[in-house]
Amino acid sequence: SVEVFRADACVCGAPSTRRDPPLASDALYTLRAAVGTSTCALCECDTNHSGEVTASDALLVLKVAVGQVGFTLDCPLP
Question: Which end of the chain is more exposed for a tag (fewer CB within 10 A), N or C?
Fold first, then answer.
């Protein structure tokens, strides 16, 4: 399958649901992108602005999704 990304469709940390705040399913999708079984635009999945999608990004999405305070998502602009 092929995914097409639109710059105006990026929601930082919510590649699956496009919700703010993200859900746990968004963290799972981000983890799948980190291990290479899915694709995800950096403007959605690079939540720590490191230039790549890693398991740390998925963990950050999960922390925000469950409401842990003190965590913010910082995705690069599209």
Answer: N
